[in-house]
Amino acid sequence: MKTRLLLAGFFAISAAHATAQTYPAKPVKLTAPYSAGAGPAVFMRVLAEKLTKYWEQQVIVDSRPGASGFIAIDAVKNAAPDGYELLVAANSHMTVNPAIFRDRLPYDPQKDFAPVATVFLTPFFITVKSDGPLATVPALIAAAKASPGGLTYGGPYVGSPSHLGGADFEFRTGTKMTFVPYKDQSQMYVSIANGELSWAFSTIGSALPLLKAGRLKLLAIGARQRSAAAPDVPTVGEAGGPQGLEVLSWMALFAPRATSPEIVGKVNAAVARALGEPDVLERMRSFGFEPFISTPAQLADLIRADTKTNTALVERIGVKPQ
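RE: above sequence
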């Protein structure tokens, strides 16, 4: 009996190794909880093109926005652990949602998924209508104080960097504003440009079309220092807002938990290779993103550390599910 069990284990390990050696042998899908026009989804298609070239297998990005990322996350959670369906997720999905939704969260970031590779970091900017009344950060704060609950700010889902950043801005400025979630992130920017939504914390990448069209403008960056992508935009503190406010996000790839370490390592190496390519870096920086390379183990450590930090932030500012 013991011999048979040992042999079964040996053959299982051998089969897994053989599968990893030939991976990928068919198309790979990257499932993203973002609308197709949002910056993260657009850039992931750039990455997918590189992976397609490296692997000589089609890599596609499947946009499945909505429900605070639950739709996309649930799809990959229940996928076969063979590396052919991977999840694109941000720190908000993996380290903020657990603090907000607690017992209602339909997945466990650390038990249901294997960390694969980080992709980029991105800061968020206070974004307003270019010809609207909120021309400066002090003007935004004054308008919010003059009409408690009257100003609105947007985000793609509850617990997103846009939502958490806006709530933290409210807390630090002693104001009360109304959060409006948008399933379609591109529509959020159209709403700001049309004067239907007061403002939002956004990335350059997602707001880029309307920024280029001159319909939106960036008032300040939610970071401790200015961005090389927008050096003329001051920090929130420099612009007359609360000091030290940071609204940052990282994006990473994840696989179903039982995916073999060999496949995880192969994807990690390919992503790191792509992030070193000059054309990928140029496109990334046009979105205001910064390359972020790590090992799967480093990503796991990052998730644990950020979960602790963001749980404290959620409790401090009192963010609740909506």
